[in-house]
Amino acid sequence: MSEWSFTLRINQPLTPEQADVFDHCDAFADGSVSYILAPDDPHQYRHHPDPSKLRELSCDVEAPTLLDAIAQVARNLQLIPGLRAVGVRHDDTVTLDEAAQRCDRSRQSLVQLSRDQRGPAGFPEPESGAEGTEFYSWREIAKFLRSIGDTVPEPSRDLVIADQVLRLAHELEGVDVDPGTLRALGLPAT
User: Fold this and answer.
1) Residue 184 lies in a domain
2) Domain tally, the chain
3) Domain ranges, residue 120
4) Residue 12 domain-assigned?
């Protein structure tokens, strides 16, 4: 099994009660999914968390495919009352581990390229880094890999499919749609 990194968007920031359920839920006990919880009184603090980050879960999940990994977290999230997955974010900013998941190269191969072929027309320089982690532009890495003859796929179909399905499920939540209309749209009627 492979480990897949992605950011799952959720319908709302976690409340302290939901965070407590999350922290004690066996499905999340392995630490593969993390969240940011807003402080009770954010005005007491100099720096405020980015509101969009409060509606995201950082995921590093082992599964046969990326789509399976996303589905697993979305399903487990339903164990927390009031929370559900509403989409998947596909960032341009990646580590070399994440870049390796998006192409047919290993992390070690990308590390070697980043050492051997840096420069104006070579492997892109890191954009930023924190605590020893270097971040790169996926778009720039893909451009470089294509320039040396690699076939680099467009954004993962698994991410696109998962994002669209989760968005649709969120939009249909609580909406009364005729089963015949759903079938006519090519969707299963439940």
Assistant:
1) no
2) 2
3) 93-147
4) yes
pLDDT digits 0-9 by tens, 96-134: 988 888 888 899 999 999 888 776 678 998 886 556 678
Residue 90, Ramachandran bin (φ over 0: left; ψ between -120 and 50: alpha; else beta): beta
Q: Can you tell me the mean pLDDT for 160-184?
A: 87
Residues 68 and 132 in one domain: no
Cβ neighbours for 120, distance < 8 A, ≥ 6 positions apart: none
Return the residue matching tokens 């487990």. 76
In a domain, 182, yes or no: no
Is residue 68 domain-resident?
yes
pLDDT at 152: 86
pLDDT of 43-79, one tens digit each?
555 665 667 778 999 999 999 988 999 999 999 999 9
Tokens of 90: 């596909």
Residues 77 and 97 reside in one and the same domain: no
Instruction: Tell me, yes or no, whether 72 and 101 share the same domain.
Output: no
- Which helix (DSSP H) or strand (DSSP E) does residue 119 occupy? none
Structure tokens at 153: 């796929």
| Token pair of 39 as six digits | 């402080």
Is residue 94 within 8 A of residue 141, CB to CB? The reply is: yes
Q: Using the 3D structure, point to which of 22, 54, 89 is the last residue of a domain.
A: 89
pTM to 2 decimal places = 0.70
DSSP per residue, 27-85? GGTTS-EEE----SSGGGSSS---GGGGGEEEEEEEESSHHHHHHHHHHHHTTSTT--E
